[in-house]
Specification:
Blueprint: E1 2-5, H1 15-19, E2 23-26, E3 29-32, H2 35-49, E4 56-61, H3 65-77, E5 85-88, E6 95-96, H4 98-115, E7 119-121, E8 138-141, E9 145-149, E10 155-156, E11 179-180, H5 181-186, H6 188-191, E12 201-202, E13 222-226, H7 231-247, E14 252-256, H8 266-281, E15 285-289, E16 304-309, E17 326-334, H9 351-356, E18 362-365, H10 377-386, H11 391-397, E19 401-402, E20 406-409, H12 421-430, H13 436-449, H14 454-463, H15 471-483, H16 487-498, H17 504-520, H18 524-535, H19 542-560
Parallel strand pairs: 1-3, 4-5, 4-9, 6-10, 9-13, 14-15, 14-16, 16-17
Antiparallel strand pairs: 2-3, 7-8, 10-11, 12-19, 18-20
Helix pairs in contact: 3-7, 8-10, 10-11, 13-14, 14-15, 15-16, 16-17, 17-18, 18-19
């Protein structure tokens, strides 16, 4: 029997898999967890699984009916305890003053946490002088997460009257006290808001490797918001998150770097390259563009599960043109200084447009953070995927700063990779879900990443009944055949994929692959027709320019004959 390795992934694994013989069968193939790995992880998994579900407080703006509605929807969807809902009368715009934040949000929130016995604090918490090395003010907490609902302000405006000692020692560009509401509240456990407000605070939990460390008693509250251009979009974030928790987060991963090899901005590209490699090894079909331009309107961005890139000021390329193919649960982030300056618009900056186009979770900055003040994407994607953490845990572990500019948008409890892949695969088969094709694709990619030959994975795909009708698996089969230098078999698989109702963007990618293969094989008539079809399909873009150039080459070659 052929053995196909499927490494342990995710945080909420079923102990029955690890404690048994470590195998799971799919047809004549086996997914195998090595006994040594299972034995090593068993005690760790037992400790994690015995922990209670992550507790959350939901905060809404009682002056907004939309905010109340989003809170009620989330409260019911996550089946939260009765004392975990808090309404406060707040400004209805996206910006609040520092005084409004302190008097209408921070202090009433602290009061409610104390009255409901959700937090216990040090006796001297309200009087001791702040020092970033002090133990946090919170000593016991019944919550780890705070969910802000659509209608809760996004930004704290700069206070020009605020003066604090030591400000003159900071670089001029950091002598600022505006902040994202999310990031300011995330720092609340440190000193109950009595910290310095100029510049950023270091996040002592940055790059944490233990999710349990991300706790108010360690100086951080995991804050995220259900927000977006409309209350309907905000409500849908938890629905799509729970759908992906049940069915899996599938699709393809896209990373758009800039080709930077030195200088001050190299860090951003290194984050993206690290994230792409993490996700590739996790089993996602992964594309990394390491050139300066961002994805253009003609880039075939199909079936998006994960995306990160930089550096355009406003939504652009395939995200702006047409309808992006975001799958339920999709996580997408575009690094830009003002990517979350507003969440209420579907055509400005990045976060609002991404949410309006179907993204389930994103992050962004409300004002200039500087590169070091943005989330570390290498950390974020590792914690979200390979480590199986929740979105809230991954987002704040990736943030090097608190009381700064980051907003986190989505359900913080969202755990897209919490289920063991073998358990999820069996469930999809039982439910006869077409999503099982993506699970097969992940098996193929995991094994390729671990050195299994392309020929073996062709054999695996040919044994699966789903391959006959799935454009996802047929495309992969064609790619593998091309890698094995069997272009005729690749074309056969791609033609079947094109006849199996691929998505519009997958269709373009298949047509591109087919046209290139036909050209290399010297099948001039078919190649000419293929390039012409693409020229009639693509929008104005660099991709269309390249296709038109190839079309002219094909015409000249045809005439020469």
């Amino acid at each position: 029997m052929k053995t196909i390795v499927h490494p342990l992934a995710g945080r909420n694994q079923r102990l029955a898999v690890a404690a048994g013989n470590g195998t799971f069968s799919i047809g004549n193939f086996q997914l195998q967890i090595p006994r040594t790995a299972a034995a090593t992880l068993l005690l760790l998994l037992a400790a994690i699984l015995s922990a209670p579900a992550a507790p959350v407080l939901v905060l809404y703006n009682s002056a907004s009916e939309d905010s109340k509605g989003v809170a009620a929807h989330y409260f019911a969807a996550r089946k939260l305890p009765g004392d975990r809902l808090l309404g406060l009368p707040l400004p209805t715009g996206e910006t609040m003053s520092r005084a409004e934040f302190r008097e209408q949000l921070q202090e009433p929130l602290l009061k409610a946490l104390g009255e409901r016995a959700l937090w216990k604090t040090r006796p001297d918490a309200a009087t001791r002088e702040f020092n970033p090395t002090n133990a946090p003010a919170v000593t016991e907490s019944q919550i780890r997460y705070l969910v802000l609902c659509h209608g809760v302000p996004l930004r704290i405006a700069p206070d020009t009257n605020l003066t604090e000692p030591g400000t003159d020692k900071l670089p001029p560009e950091l002598r600022r006290n505006e902040a994202a509401v999310d990031s300011e509240l995330a720092a609340l456990p440190l000193a109950l808001g009595r910290h310095g407000l100029t510049s950023a605070l270091p996040n002592r939990n940055y790059a944490a490797t233990n999710p349990a460390a991300l706790h108010p008693t360690n100086g951080i509250l995991l804050v995220a918001r259900l927000d977006g251009p409309s209350a309907t979009i905000a409500r849908g974030l938890v629905d799509k998150a729970m759908q992906a928790e049940r069915d899996g987060l599938w699709g393809r991963a896209y990373f758009d770097a800039r080709g930077i090899t030195s200088g001050g901005y190299l860090t951003g590209d290194e984050w993206l390259r690290k994230a792409a490699e993490t996700v590739r090894r996790f089993g996602f079909e992964t594309a990394l563009d390491d050139t300066e331009p961002t994805f253009s309107a003609g880039f075939p961005l199909s079936q998006v599960g994960l995306y990160a890139g930089w550096y355009d000021g406003n939504v652009s390329g395939p995200f702006k043109a047409g309808v992006p193919e975001f799958l339920p649960g999709a996580v997408a982030y575009h690094l830009h200084s003002f990517s979350a300056h507003t969440l209420r618009a579907s055509d400005k900056n990045w976060c609002g447009p991404l949410l309006a186009r179907g993204v389930t979770a994103t992050m962004g900055c409300v004002e200039e953070p500087f590169l070091a003040g943005t989330p570390d994407l290498g950390v974020f994607f590792h914690r979200l995927t390979a480590a199986g953490w929740t979105f809230g845990e991954a987002a704040w572990a990736a943030s090097g700063s608190l009381s700064w500019q980051t907003a986190v948008v989505g359900d913080p409890l969202y755990q897209p990779f919490g289920r063991h892949p073998a358990e999820l695969h069996a469930d999809l088969i039982k439910r006869r879900s077409p999503l099982v094709a993506w699970s097969h694709l992940r098996v193929v990619n995991l094994n390729l990443a671990q050195g299994t030959s392309a020929a073996e994975m062709v054999g695996y795909l040919n044994e699966q009944a789903e391959t006959k009708t799935s454009p996802v698996l047929l495309e992969k089969l064609g790619d593998l055949q091309l890698k094995l230098e069997k272009p005729d078999l690749a074309l056969e698989a791609w033609d079947k994929a094109l006849a199996s109702q691929p998505t519009p963007q997958q269709r373009i990618r298949l047509l591109l692959a087919r046209a290139e293969a036909l050209t290399k094989l010297g099948r001039d008539v078919l190649a000419l027709a293929a390039w012409q079809q693409l020229a009639n399909t693509l929008p104005p873009s660099p991709e269309l320019d390249r296709v038109n150039a190839r079309l002219e080459e094909a015409k000249l070659k045809f005439k020469a004959k």
